[in-house]
Amino acid sequence: MDDLESLAAEIDRASTVVALTGAGISAPSGVPTFRGDDGVWEHFDEGQFTYGRFQRDPAGFWDDRGDLQRELFGEAYEPNAAHVALAELAAEGYLDAVVTQNTDGLHRDATARVRGATADGENDTTDESEGTDHEILELHGNARRVRCVDCGRRQDADPVFERAEDGDLPPRCDCGGTFKPDVVLFGEQLPGAVIQRARTLAGESDVFLAIGSSLVVQPAASLPRQAAADGTLAVINLEETPCDGDAAVVCRADVTEAVPRLRELVR
Ligand code: APR
């Protein structure tokens, strides 16, 4: 945690600061991580949740996805001190963007909480600000929504998962198209505009904070290295990551201690 002082000074001087977050930032809220001890992929077979399976066998995909959705989002989660500290840093003008791999929507909830409003949950994955103090880019989509693969209509995921649970498999939109969770599945390309925007942010950042991610899933995992080429990379994560060697600061601490501490030091 000692290095956080020098990092805070860099953030103070920087004109563009970007955070990339992963499952580790939501773990203290109770959301399971994917890897590591008791990670979701220890209990579920990643191979059943690919885009290829969705296309080949949408009914089977939806059947299994219901179990995964319950495991991941079966409870109502609240943003924790790390989400809130990032939202506060943004509101105070120190943080320009949060690029997240998480699909839990907790950065938006934290931002809404800091602004004293309620999250509307309607934002697009590429949403730029929409009244927030900073940009929140949900690289892998948002699991609270589903999207029709034909007409593109988005809607709240809960009623659609309920229909699937009642045997309406695969659940379909009024237009007849199949609904898909509004997340990027394994084997599915990220929307071009989204990854392009993330690369631009990484390239423009003077300070890039990689927080709570194992940094092994591409293309998100390439962003820290890209940012380090021209700016300062800091990694805040409990475990070692493949990007630690590129980082000026590696903080092996719980996000709920390190991120609020960083915010205190910046102010
Ligand atoms: N504080 C700091 N770090 C933590 C904490 C914590 N409280 N809890 C967990 N971590 C760290 C773990 O040590 C681990 O390295 O968070 C990291 C989470 O890594 P992953 O579970 O691999 O999550 P992530 O990097 O977000 O995964 C990327 O993989 O399966 C896909 O689409 C899914 O978006 C996800 C992507």
From TrEMBL:
The keyword Metal-binding applies. InterPro entries: DHS-like_NAD/FAD-binding_dom, NAD-dep_sirtuin_deacylases, Sirtuin, Sirtuin_cat_small_dom_sf, Ssirtuin_cat_dom. One of its GO terms (molecular function) is metal ion binding. The active site is at residue 140. Residues 109-132 are annotated as: Disordered. Residues 121-130 have a biased composition (Acidic residues). Keywords: Metal-binding, NAD, Transferase, Zinc. It comes from the Archaea. Residues 1-267 form the Deacetylase sirtuin-type domain. It holds the Pfam family SIR2. Zn(2+) binds at residues 148, 151, 173, 175. The keyword NAD applies. Signal peptide: none annotated. This is NAD-dependent protein deacetylase. It comes from Natrarchaeobaculum aegyptiacum.
